[in-house]
Amino acid sequence: PLVAGVRTWLFCAWLAWSRYRVVLAVTDKAVPTLIACLDQALRRFGGVPTYALTDNERTVTTDIVARIPVRHTELVKMGRHYGLSIATCVVADPESKGGAEATVRMAEADLVPSEANLLAAYKSFAELAAACEAFCHQVNARAHRATRRAPDEMLAEERHRLHPLPDHPYSAIFGVTRTV
User: Nearest 5 degrees, angle CA 107-CA 111-CA 116?
Assistant: First the structure.
């Protein structure tokens, strides 16, 4: 969505078993922003899953050699910090992309102003962030169509299967140090 004429993006994460969703508004797609979003999502989940499945964004995959994606070194270090393996979706494979794309579609339909949903434009980034928070509370509190249970309720069970979170976030979320 546009906020005061500035382009923003929606970071979407979800846990496959509980269907618990996290949607965060961001102003860029840089590596430190992605790491900060992953940290925030993991803290909302209350633990760390074994792996994170992501799209083949340039932020995550820097190159492909012999059809094998090469991960960004900072994301590999972040994965080690959390005990999380970063995996990417297979191109044109609905099984690996389906859940992620469905979460993005839902978030866009409910959060991005359009003629179909009649949402007004956001006046500030804080207003967009509050809308994302309200969206998360709404979708996580209502019963999911497939499981017939609320993701909030199922997350309580899933947390027992997640790895513990480190006490401190990965330091790259505080910025990138440059040497001159």
Answer: 100
DSSP states along 60-77 = TEEEEETTEEEEPHHHHH
At residue 107's C-alpha, the angle toward residues 126 and 127, to 5°, is: 10
**Rg for the chain (alpha carbons), in Å?**
17
As a whole number of angstroms, the distance between CA 78 and CA 35 comes to: 7
pLDDT tens for 80-91 read 999 999 887 776
> Tell me: the pLDDT tens digits for 40-74?
999 999 999 998 888 767 778 888 888 777 888 88
CA distances from 34 to 12, 27, 44, 120 (A): 11, 11, 15, 27
Q: Which of 82, 84, 87, 79 is nearest to 53 (CA)?
A: 87
End-to-end CA distance of the chain: 36
Q: What is the pTM of this model?
A: 0.84
Taking phi over 0 as left and psi of -120 to 50 as alpha, with beta for the rest, 19 belongs to: left
Tokens 């997640």 locate to 162
Q: Report in angstroms the alpha-carbon separations of 19 from 10, 156, 166.
A: 18, 12, 23
